[in-house]
Amino acid sequence: MNYQMVKFVAAYGTSAQVPASTSPEVSFVGRSNVGKSSIMNKIFGRKGLVKVSSTPGKTSTINFFDVEGATFVDLPGYGFAKVAKSEKGRWSELIEGYFAQDRRFALVVSLIDIRHDATKDDLRMVSYLEERELPYLVAFTKADKLSKAQQQKQVASISKQLAAIGANPIVVTTSSERGQGIDDLRALIEDAISQAS
Predict the structure, then answer these.
(1) End-to-end CA distance of the chain
(2) Which domains, ranges and CATH numbers included, belong to the chain?
(3) What is the pLDDT of residues 70-94, one digit of tens each?
């Protein structure tokens, strides 16, 4: 798959605006400031395609991208405290409304910051994906901020948290800075797309 062929398709402010899916979809979800835009840009090999913001919680729409007939979906970040309740409610409607639709879900990439324990929101998201039986994996982000030994320790610790809620997903440790884990992530994405096609 040539990720550099990526094209921005559209952005939607409510889940009702989102058109029916016509191709396998790879969705990216995670808390605000987890580094979602940076990881997506790294996968695509493009610098500023997915908007990276210094202000967490800036993605307030569902953004759709096309790569050779597969759809990549950038969902709003969750769990950012400094946002008005009404805006939080809208984001939650966007995320839940999107997942509640009958869509061609190939893979959901659930992003968790490796430097910290999984938050309640992270665990809630993974639990939701489990309950809905959606195909997903967990990508740990910002691995460049830790040593190899610290990374292993955190992967074990967060995996234990996930196991406690009955989740045992494939996990990939990534860094958008150094490119760690990006090839593995691409391979898993391509495999999921081919299975869903």
Answers:
(1) 14
(2) 3-196 (3.40.50.300)
(3) 999 999 888 765 555 666 566 677 8
Cα 80 → chain centroid: 16
Dig out the tokens for 80 from the structure: 């950012």
Please state whether beta strands 62-67 and 105-113 pair in parallel, antiparallel, or not at all (unpaired).
unpaired
- Per the CB < 8 A criterion, the answer to whether 111 and 76 are in contact is no
Between CA 60 and CA 72, with CA 66 as vertex, the angle to 5 degrees is 50
| Three-state secondary-structure class, residue 110 | strand
Per-chain mean pLDDT for the chain:
91
Distance from C-alpha of 159 to C-alpha of 156, rounded to nearest angstrom? 5
To the nearest 10 degrees (0 to 180), the angle between helices 148-164 and 120-131 is 60
Q: Contact at 8 Å (CB) between 189 and 195?
A: no
Integer Cα distance of 161 and 165 in angstroms: 7
